Amino acid sequence: MKPVKTYILYGCIATALLGLFSCDKNLDNEVKTSFDDKTQWQSESYADIFLNDVYDQLPDMYSQPENLDNFTDDNDAGFYYNSWKFKDGNLDPASANYALFGGGATGVQTISRYNWPALYTSIRKCNTFIQQVTAHKSNYSADWFNKRIDEARFNRAFHYSILFLHWGGVPLILDPQVRTDTASLFVKRSTYAETLDFIVKTVDTILANKYLAVKYNKGNPNAGRATLGAALMLKAYLQLVAASPTFNSATYPGGTDPNRIAGFGNVDPARWATAAASFKKFMDDWGGAGKQYNLFPEDSTLWYEDNEYNAEVIWDRQYVSNAKGSNYEQYGGPVYILGSYYTWGNYNPTQELVDQFFMANGKPITDPASGYDPQKPYVNRESRFYKWIVYDGAPYKLDWMPAQDTIYTRIDKVRPSLNQIDFASTDVSNTAYYFRKKLNPKNRPSTGVSGANYIYFRYAEVLLGYAEAQNEAVGPDASVYTAMNAIRARVNLPALPPSLTQSQMRDAIRQERRVELCFENKRFQDIIRWKIADQVLTVDLHGMKIENTVPGNNSGVWTYTPVGLNHPHAFKMKQYLHPIPQSALAQNYKLVQTPGY
């Protein structure tokens, strides 16, 4: 069997042309990029092409510059992205233009396949596959049928999870709809609790069936398909979100919610224990030394193509270099490398994020005992800082580069740098920082060249999720310390100090999560679920202005001054969830709008 990574190249073409081409009677001469309904479901290999297109509908997070981090306080994105409008408090339900550039103020809907109609299109494909494969069950082996049905169920649950995270309660559609069937065509929004329950029950069915593998390793022909590990992680993560303050609340911050679509409408501390139990089951059954999942020894290389499906990877999206490759390297990293323009410079860490990185002694820079010197801010920081942040004076060398470069972002009137901090509208960073985490070192920045997969979930998140949920449920017991210290030990940070209070541990967990998962599209949901978006997105963010006290000849000292970016920061309470597009409301009279819009 060919791996999904090969099939994904043409699966989308096959289903796009479905029904438009009649098959030749001689099956050996069929054009396998186009099928009618009869041919599509007559064999496992043909049905697989349809399902591989379902996998191809997974959000393409590496192939466009707008991402969830753009909507947070961690990244300074360009003014031409819709995240700029979002940070200015603008979300327009009337817009149906989800284009990246020049689109309406639609928030995360400008991200690839994060918009309402695209997600339901993907869900319809999952429903169609389940319906048709079930109707033609006699054409398949029992093993193939059982596995593929659960794979389709997982893909449907994953797409519903995106809707759940950004819209709350949504219409649950489990069969391909027919326009003439008006009795079932119009579906109301399920409650927040009902939507979560549907996804959890779907995952529980998959876990109970045990048809899928726990994990696929690199080289396995099924690598890239859904697994039991991915299913349990999805369940635990959604339970973590649901247990968090924004949604585990009697009131929704965005407005009155009589239909209970934006949260539970009550507070139940047991929801934390439920999430903790799911993470613990993952760790007990499949995590740690000698088991399927564990922390990868080197935190900076676990994303590389050579290390695909390592022990830390739980769920990812496939890319194939120079065929269906990603654009990640084109969009981020220093703009100018060895004097030449290479990238769009989209990943620009804010000073707020940079300040979260610990000192080498494990203490935050705010601790008087940390040794932090604000006029030597890049000295004696922890290892992740040097691996992931490109700062002023940082050495920069990737495998494709013929020589090492040094990236300067300071304002230097004697030897000006092309990467000098830019408060204007070019691609050069406005914060004086660039990012290098996840960049494929073998690929020179260009469109579609990288075959490194995008990781949705990894084992570090299991440990962090468990620590957070367990701390909220019972306090900082020994198991919370064990999970947290495992993350810290990998990067040579000392263990957390003993006897932390629950509040102190909460702060430690949130800081560790922000650093460890930075620029992995996790921060957005964290500031939403922790109900702090209206705090962190309503104040100006900062960069670092570096100047010499004698700028004429640089004979003075270099000074470091945090400087405001003067960018939009007007987040509104209703933005804790997104509005349903007005066009969808017009098509379905049973839909109600998200509170506040």
Automatic annotation (TrEMBL):
Protein's organism: Niastella vici
Protein name: Glycan metabolism protein RagB
Record has Membrane as a keyword: yes
Family annotation (SUPFAM superfamilies): TPR-like (SSF48452)
Keywords tagged on the record: Cell outer membrane, Membrane, Signal
Assigned GO CC terms: cell outer membrane
Predominant subcellular localization, coarse grouping: membrane
Compartment(s) of residence: Cell outer membrane
Family: Belongs to the SusD family.
Pfam families assigned to the protein according to its UniProt record, in alphabetical order: SusD-like_3, SusD_RagB
Domain annotation SusD-like N-terminal: ranges: 113-218
InterPro entries, sorted: SusD-like_N, SusD_RagB_dom, TPR-like_helical_dom_sf
UniProt domain RagB/SusD: residue ranges: 312-597
Keyword Coiled coil annotated: no
